[in-house]
Design goal:
4 domains; about 675 residues; globular; seven-stranded mixed sheet
Length: about 675
């Protein structure tokens, strides 16, 4: 373990120093340009202290592994403590000398928990007050921490309400400091008779990408392990946490009874004061819609939303943007403004917000809503309960469904930019399973999914079957979409035909490992191409690194008849060819996302991790997808903090995952 930590430290420092080369601005409006690296490099502990810590971590990890397997579900409660210490040592996450003592405290807590488990005790899982727990993330199998505030009062028959509080940006608030704080501080809110959940959210990625999944997994963990009333879950947060509330409430609104974003950005262009001449390429602007909340505004009508801003806080800008979005469809956004306040709550304002959240908690989620909306330019988020938008006419267009009970007691659906709908047999209506689309009735088959397809004359029909190769929720791209779900990095067992390409692959793989560890706060699963099993193909999105010569699974993908027919694409030792446009294979690489031909429910990704890079970390509003479904990348420019190379050609695949000239740049 000691040698491993030292080797990882050297690798991380190399990547970190490279990232310091590009100056950038701070998240919340610091003036001028400053170097931005997450986490910043801190103090170096004495070698004697490092040796003592590393020996203690090794010893505790050995004891943890030797525990009875029946305690496997509780191991993450200890792993998060050890990981926090290990990563703090690895990245020098000590910013004042008193931080060294935090390692000692977390190691002592890990020791106490291991001893308790050895005796068959789990005291920390049920105690009142402040708790720190851990859950195992499905994305990368890492242990991720959460903080809990448990009330002293017993739950009601239906369980405790759950308040989810999203923390603000903290470049230095890594696992070590987050856990320490959660053991010491109640936090901004403590509503009576409720459990408060503090997700870590992978620290500082704005609750996007893996951070988004982290919050939802944290909620599931608490609901599975505590008596929670799932009809009474409130979402709140401030600053970066407020931004997280905006997009999580817009993406997953059916899970929350109410939401209150405080002083967080809601979109990209206006928040960053970008002028049209400064906009990035069109495909990146299209991808802004993944997290730009105005494009989801109708979803927010499905639950009570109360926004907060300080009167003198420049981040009131986000609330003004959302006020305009509400007004554009004839609604008014409830907006509480703290008089005379900057970037913090006014006590009376927070009291009023909590009162409104409590009113929503008392009512609970409606069991049988008479109307709801789905609005989503990205297919991943185009579902609510029994209804899913399964396909669209124009990708990333304004996709919308209003669903309302008609006079006969059936659901009438009014879609826009929708090509396919999926209706579950759980649709709440009786005595006959029936819906209507724009007033046209369609009988639904019981006990199965029903696919409704828009025909050329604008009528709708029940489809007998739907092709597996189509863009739909969970399998719609772009490249970044893979890293929200479980992934497996597949390493090449051979070498590429080009030394330049081979070096790029090696450097970018090391960059991805170090970035995932430092920014995404985990370790990625990895296997050689020769070790991938059929079970892996069923469980994971496969992220393949290499060329057809170096990675057998890349070769299989490029030779697959389904892919060759749909894409008109080839990759040989001499050229990468996309629909007749050739690029020198010695100087270019192919990056791509595509349904796995052997399991269309999962992706195959070629040669890419998340596409936002260190220069974009200066503000969480820029930590968005940067590249579409496929890219031919030139290596004439070395990888830097903004890009892995120069984009020579790129584009989105069409609705049936085929190459399209119209979607190419």
């Amino acid at each position: 373990m000691i040698l491993q930590i030292k080797n990882l430290l050297l690798l991380s420092l190399a990547v970190c120093f490279a990232s310091l080369a590009t100056p950038s601005s701070a998240q919340n409006g610091s003036d001028g340009n400053i170097p931005r690296r997450i986490p910043p490099l801190g103090l170096q502990p004495a070698s004697e202290q490092l040796t003592r810590w590393e020996a203690s971590i090794d010893d505790l990890e050995t004891k943890l592994e030797s525990l009875n397997p029946k305690h496997a579900s509780l191991k993450p409660d200890i792993e998060v403590l050890l990981k926090a210490c290990r990563f703090a040592i690895l990245h020098r996450e000590f910013y004042k000398k008193t931080d060294f003592g935090k390692v000692d405290q977390l190691l002592e807590l890990a020791k106490t928990r291991i001893e308790s488990l050895s005796s068959g005790k789990t005291d920390w899982t049920g105690m009142e007050g402040l708790q720190v727990r851990g859950f195992r993330s499905e994305i990368d199998d890492s242990a991720q921490p959460i903080g809990l505030v448990h009330p002293t009062t017993p739950p009601k028959k239906t369980g405790y309400p759950l308040y989810v509080w999203l923390h603000g940006r903290g470049d230095k608030t890594t696992d070590l400091h987050f856990i320490y704080n959660r053991l010491q501080q109640v936090g901004q809110i403590q509503p009576p008779g409720a459990i408060v959940l503090h997700p870590f959210g992978r620290q500082c990625i704005g609750y996007k990408s893996a951070g988004e999944t982290d919050v939802m997994e944290a909620i599931d963990f608490v609901c599975d392990n505590y008596p929670i009333d799932r009809r009474r879950i409130v979402l709140m947060g401030f600053s970066m946490g407020g931004a997280g509330v905006w997009h999580l409430a817009a993406h997953y609104e059916e899970r929350f009874v109410a939401a209150s974003p405080g002083a967080g950005f809601a979109e990209t262009a206006k928040y960053n004061r970008l002028k049209p001449e400064d906009f990035p390429p069109e495909y990146e602007q299209i991808l802004w819609k993944t997290y730009d909340v105005p494009s989801y505004v109708h979803n927010l009508f499905n639950l009570p939303v109360v926004v907060y801003s300080g009167e003198n806080d420049k981040q009131i800008q986000a609330a003004r943007v959302m006020e305009e979005a509400y007004a554009s469809v004839g609604r008014k956004l409830p907006h509480i403004i703290g008089p005379g306040m900057g970037h913090k709550y006014h006590p009376d304002s927070l009291k009023e917000i909590l009162q409104r959240m409590q009113e929503a908690v008392i009512d609970g989620l409606p069991r049988n809503p008479q109307r709801f909306y789905i609005q989503s330019p990205h297919l991943r988020y185009a579902r609510r309960g029994w209804l899913t938008v399964d396909g669209v006419e124009q990708q990333y267009g304004d996709t919308f469904v209003e669903a309302e009970i008609d006079d006969a007691g059936y659901w009438d659906l009014r879609p826009k930019n929708v090509a396919r709908l999926c209706v579950d047999s759980t649709v709440p209506q009786s005595p006959q399973l029936q819906v209507s689309i724009n007033g046209m009735p369609i009988v639904i088959k019981p006990k199965q999914r029903n696919y409704l397809v828009k025909e050329k004359n604008d009528s709708w029909a029940l489809a007998d079957a739907v092709a597996p190769f189509r863009k739909r929720p969970g399998v719609s791209g772009p490249i970044d979409d893979a890293f929200i779900n479980p992934v497996l990095i597949v390493l090449p067992s051979g070498k590429s035909w080009s030394p330049k390409v081979e070096k790029w692959m090696r450097d970018e793989l090391n960059f991805l490992r170090a970035r995932w560890r430092s920014l995404f706060r985990g370790e990625l699963r990895e296997k050689q191409d020769t070790e991938v099993t059929e079970e892996d193909k069923q469980r994971f999105h496969l992220v393949l690194w290499g060329t057809p010569e170096s990675n057998s699974l890349v070769l299989d993908a490029m030779q697959n008849q389904e892919i060759r027919t749909r894409l008109n694409c080839s990759w040989s030792a001499s050229t990468i060819d996309f629909d007749g446009e050739e690029h020198d294979s010695g100087n270019h690489v192919l990056q791509m996302i595509y349904p796995n031909p052997e399991n269309p429910e999962r992706y195959v990704v070629l040669n890419s991790g998340p596409t936002f890079r260190p220069a974009h970390d200066r503000t969480n509003s820029l930590q968005n997808p940067k590249l579409p479904d496929w890219v031919v990348l030139s290596l004439e420019t070395s990888p830097n903090t903004e890009a892995a190379g120069t984009v020579k050609a790129c584009g989105f695949f069409d609705d049936t995952w085929r190459f399209s000239k119209q979607l190419t740049w």
